[in-house]
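Hi support team,

I submitted a single chain yesterday and got back a structure, but I'm not sure I'm reading the token output correctly. Could someone confirm the output below corresponds to the sequence I sent? I've pasted both exactly as they appear in my results page.

Thanks,
R.
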Amino acid sequence: MSSDRATVSIVKGALFESPFEYSEKDLRTVREMIERSLDLIGGLRQAIGSAGTVVVKPNLVEVPFEGTAGSVVTDARVLEALVGILKDYGVKRVLVAEGKSVNLKHVESGPRQAFEALGLGDVIRRAGGEILGWDEGEFVAVDVPGGELYRTINVPRSILDADAFISVPKLKTHCQTEVTVGMKSMQGVFSVDDKVNFHNEAFPWKMVDMLRVAKPHVTIVDGLICGEGYGPIYTEPVEMNLIVSSTDVVAIDAVCSAIMGIDPFDVPITRLGHTEGIGIGDLARIDVCGESIDSVMKHFKRAGEWNPIGSSDRIRVFAGGACRFCLAQIGAAVTRLRYEGKLDGLDDICVIIGHNAPSPVRDYKNVFIIGDCARDTDIEGTFIGGCPPLPSVQIVRAFEKHLKED
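Hi R., thanks for writing in. Yes, this is the structure output for that exact sequence:
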């Protein structure tokens, strides 16, 4: 492969079970899919050499709602199969690691508890791996060559000390970034305190700066049960039975976007990763091996309600100059309240958001001023600050105080 081109493999398999209960047959099929996907891009030796210690980062954003049916976090079958492949290859230590979600910043539980709650701890240990919560370990300040937001960036020591780093994201749409695949998954590498920084329209630069210093040696995308709609948490399952692999994290994002029916350059993170030289996002310069994009492509439902105006007659949103990242927090709150069956039971709520937000002529009893940009509004109400306000569950809990009494 020349430096001006990238290779991405797409492998499709026949699976009949679920990530929550599966047999050796399904596990063997997934293992064969991963092995073939890696062979198509040059094999493990080309990707990780003779690595003795490998860090594997899954997508473990949050313990998901039951109705999301395997579409939120990395599939147990993929993790068990991959850890087994690495151990059989000769890797001495396989550390399956994830960071603490911003949704869990103010609670004691973290990634280790999430691994165990999802049953992934047993799966990983059974295959010969170890689990690691980055919130438990050390972060090291690393100089960022060519950094735009960061001169130095804090990176988990486990990644720096490992011989290879493998990212295993879930294929999903996303309310703030259009898609979440390899590049967006790098948010999990930041410490929980750093996660809240630049979680706004500067977010693509944040991911690119991290990738300047902690780029995965190979990205293996779990496309078995994908997530469409209001990702990353409130997704609807789409069975695709795919494994997608590449040593180019930008190229894999481009191909995965196309698989979901989304133009890669409609995704700011992918576009920026391409123009900044992190990888190749132009489909014309990507060699796709195995299945073709057209043969597996499905138009995914996107997170249309990231702009929550009109999404509920109970929550009336009056926005001025509000960015997508802030608006999507309201959208996430609306979606969660709908999931929990509480949305229709709310009293009327008025939300003021963004710079120069309009003032409704109607008097509302329950007014919320959300996000730092709306802080100076003349309207009186309950202020929930942040840029954006994180986590969105704080908005949910504030809204649900206004449930109508039976």
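A quick pointer for reading it: The radius of gyration is 21 Å. Let us know if anything else looks off.

Best,
Support desk
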